[in-house]
């Protein structure tokens, strides 16, 4: 079923105590001030309490975590069906942070349930620690697919008493490439289990993936009611490039000195480098991404919660599950690739009734992504322009049709009036006059320039013959080739060239110092001076390498060439110098990144 607006409004009269939850659990919810369920909770909880499988769709911030945890804990209040140490409830999540967030919520809900142990197993934590946790009886196991697979293969987990499986944020797990791991995990679980799948959207891909795992599932889809972050001010600040974005990010943080910000970037490398740059500007910033050890990620989050840092530079994956009440600003340094990630991002601010703001830094190359987000969620973005940091790039107003490109077709670029006589322009095209001396389709070319209709250079390429068809000039360039229906394979080759008769002559003598190929390269011939002799493969024990080179014995010789560098693993923690960091950004800006 799909919940429409009037269905959701009627849920306000429902209470948790009327849903059939465990009595002690209902008391715990009341002690936390939780009385009325959200729409997704009101419809999903009864289905799961009946023991049916469920496929549910809801955006972030709608309470879907409680929608599956409350029925699961009610189940755990009853005696187990089977005895053993393995978990009775398994929750799979795409990221470590989300797994730990779900674990914390489960512990809070299960305070009054005796012997309800909750364990989280994620990457980045030493295996012996998790082995010790799993040696005792576990009721709820929250895990990421990769680490769970490792523990299953080592025989550390027994799923014989599993009663319920939950796939949280299934769409994100598919995006991250976990489909094979999930299918292998599910294949080793008891078939009589109950299964619940929660996803931001129930696309055809998600439903096809879920079909073999669920038995006659009930479907609950929460129709969008606008954004769950209605108290978040959303705006756009146009930018001219990478360095301009850096300056804007620093200025946005400095404009709200008492507010913590999350800055979303596309890559792990950018998370590190932007964090370094902001520190040079005197801002308290730190990075969060998947390459950091779990211990480091926890320390960074703790610093954020304690207010020891003002800016967290994060990737989408790393920021999943982050719940810090003090976040007042979200900056989209890079727009997300998927529109739904935009909602997850801005959902980090404006929580618990607080107001927040989300600012997206948009270059002309980002405009298509912005349009996709605007159309999907019907967002009317405001436009910011910080004094002294205004962008040269300014798109036309939405819906305005730019000038045409010298014909009756509008271009697909950005913004305003078209260039005269065939400039860019078009539907929402990027405004601007042509560069002086630029290319004009209908005007005469610059002296010596390219003209589509002019005669070709001697022996050159002519786009149109007398019949208006594209063709090569019949007369070849001097020393060139004659093409009549193709290259002339029988003509004399250029001096020092070759004559091809049905292919290369493999039996001819090789050039001096070259090789003779008889059905293939001659591997037994003497190598060229300073070269190598390959017998059944490259010889790694061959003569000394060329001067300044290396000798490979099962790998590269670790000793670097003079003036080079030696890389030992990932970042060794040694900070780069201020000069090196600033030089890197200067090079990026020159390349237009």
From TrEMBL:
Domain Helicase ATP-binding, chain residue ranges per copy: 45-220
EC number(s) stated in the UniProt entry for this protein: 3.6.4.13
Region annotated Disordered, chain positions: 392-593
SMART domains, alphabetized: DEXDc (SM00487), HELICc (SM00490)
Basic and acidic residues bias locations: 398-411, 433-445, 463-481, 491-538, 563-593
DEAD-box RNA helicase Q domain segment(s): 14-42
Entry superkingdom: Bacteria
Broad class of enzyme this protein falls into: hydrolase
GO cellular component, as recorded: cytosol
Family note: Belongs to the DEAD box helicase family.
Protein's UniProt name: ATP-dependent RNA helicase RhlE
């Amino acid at each position: 079923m799909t919940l429409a607006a009037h269905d959701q409004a009627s849920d306000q009269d429902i209470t948790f105590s009327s849903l059939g939850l465990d009595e002690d659990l209902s008391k715990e919810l009341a002690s936390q001030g939780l009385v009325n369920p959200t729409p997704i909770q009101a419809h999903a909880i009864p289905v799961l309490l009946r023991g049916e499988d469920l496929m549910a769709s809801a955006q972030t911030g709608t309470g879907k975590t409680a929608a599956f945890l409350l029925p699961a804990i009610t189940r755990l209040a009853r005696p187990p069906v089977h005895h053993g140490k393995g978990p009775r409830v398994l929750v799979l999540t795409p990221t470590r942070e989300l797994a730990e967030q779900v674990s914390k919520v489960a512990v809070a809900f299960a305070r009054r349930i005796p012997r309800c142990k909750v364990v989280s197993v994620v990457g980045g934590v030493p295996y012996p620690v998790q082995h010790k946790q799993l040696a005792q009886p576990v009721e709820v196991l929250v895990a990421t697919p990769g680490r769970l697979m490792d523990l299953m293969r080592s025989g550390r987990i027994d799923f014989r008493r599993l009663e319920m499986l939950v796939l949280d944020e299934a769409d994100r797990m598919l995006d991250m490439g976990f489909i094979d791991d999930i299918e292998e995990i599910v294949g080793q679980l008891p078939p009589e289990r109950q299964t619940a799948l929660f996803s931001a959207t129930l696309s055809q891909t998600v439903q096809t993936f879920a079909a073999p795992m669920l038995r006659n599932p009930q479907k609950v889809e929460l129709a969008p009611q606008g954004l769950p972050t209605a108290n978040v001010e959303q705006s756009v600040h146009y930018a001219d490039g990478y360095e301009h974005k850096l300056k804007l990010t620093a200025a946005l943080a400095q404009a709200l000195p008492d507010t913590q910000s999350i800055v979303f970037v596309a890559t792990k490398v950018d998370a590190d480098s932007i964090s370094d740059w902001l520190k040079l500007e005197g801002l308290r910033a730190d990075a969060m991404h998947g390459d950091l050890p779990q211990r480091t990620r926890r320390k960074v989050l703790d610093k954020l919660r304690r207010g020891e840092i003002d800016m967290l530079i994060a990737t989408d994956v790393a920021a999943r599950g982050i719940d810090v009440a003090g976040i007042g600003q979200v900056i989209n340094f890079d727009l997300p690739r998927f529109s739904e990630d935009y909602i997850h991002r801005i959902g980090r601010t404006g929580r618990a009734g607080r107001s927040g703001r989300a600012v997206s830094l948009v270059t002309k190359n980002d405009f298509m992504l912005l349009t996709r987000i605007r159309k999907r969620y019907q967002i009317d973005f405001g436009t910011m322009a910080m004094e002294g940091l205004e962008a040269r790039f300014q798109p036309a107003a939405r819906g305005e049709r730019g000038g045409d490109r010298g014909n009756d077709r509008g271009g697909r670029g950005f913004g305003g009036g078209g260039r005269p006589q065939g400039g860019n322009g078009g539907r929402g095209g990027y405004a601007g006059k042509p560069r002086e001396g630029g290319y004009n389709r209908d005007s005469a070319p610059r002296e010596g320039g390219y003209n589509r209709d002019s005669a070709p250079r001697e022996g050159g390429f002519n786009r149109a013959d007398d019949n208006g068809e594209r063709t090569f000039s019949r007369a070849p360039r001097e020393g060139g080739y004659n093409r009549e229906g193709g290259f002339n394979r029988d003509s004399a080759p250029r001096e020092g060239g070759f004559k091809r008769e049905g292919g290369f002559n493999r039996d001819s003598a090789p050039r001096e110092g070259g090789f003779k190929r008889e059905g293939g390269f001659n591997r037994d011939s003497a190598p060229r001076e300073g070269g190598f002799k390959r017998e059944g493969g490259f010889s790694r024990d061959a003569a000394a390498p060329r001067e300044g080179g290396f000798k490979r014995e099962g790998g590269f010789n670790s000793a670097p060439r003079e003036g080079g560098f030696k890389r030992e693993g990932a970042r060794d923690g040694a900070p780069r110098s201020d000069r090196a960091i600033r030089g890197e950004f200067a090079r990026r800006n020159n390349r237009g990144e």
